[in-house]
């Protein structure tokens, strides 16, 4: 670390299991560097493991994948793409993409953004980290990680909403309702659309505050 710039080696980043998807591990570059000009993260895997999860970007979004180490194989809209180290793959919105590792220690860096718009990080990698910690039974660390985006992204309703979920799971209803109220103030329609079907919040349903807030 130095004034004005940061140096970080990919090998210094601890891979984080990506939710419960088999093999996929994320390198949380954006979270560690607080890089805000575009979306950027890495994926790492051994031979036969998943790298980039299968998905499509929203309209107006593009992603550039850079194979910086090893050997990957992409499938883009049904087309197989052999991708050894040094390969660049530019994928447009609406195109389905997925990648697997062909070699141990393969790393793909993904850079993305929406055309014509300033990038606004959402803190989703903090959720990935928190979810991994929760599944390891490290609940206090998970709760701390899930709170990170609240201060960073004050206009993002899902930041306090996810914090409410983790507090509910931890058996802290007062904290959960406080975060839920914060999320409702930002976007009540979104919260009321998600909350009733979210099993993470089931422990709150018998509390009188639930009906008052969520309906």
Number of strands: 9
Question: What value does the Rg take, in angstroms?
Answer: 19 Å
Taking the sheet with the most strands, its summary is: 6 strands, antiparallel
Structural class based on helices, strands and sheet pairing: alpha+beta
The name of the CATH superfamily of the largest domain reads Jelly Rolls
Helical stretch tally: 6
Strand content: 15-25%
- CATH 2nd-level architecture of the largest domain: Sandwich
Q: What is the CA–CA distance across the termini? A: 49 Å
Along the chain, the helix and strand elements come as EEHEEEEEEEHHHHH
Shape: elongated
The CATH class of the largest domain is identified as Mainly Beta
Q: In CATH terms, what is the fold-level topology of the largest domain?
A: Jelly Rolls
Low-confidence sequence ranges: none
Strand arrangement, major sheet: 1-2-3-9-4-7
Query: How confident is the prediction overall: mean pLDDT?
Result: 89
Count of distinct structural domains: 2
Share of residues in helices: 25-40%
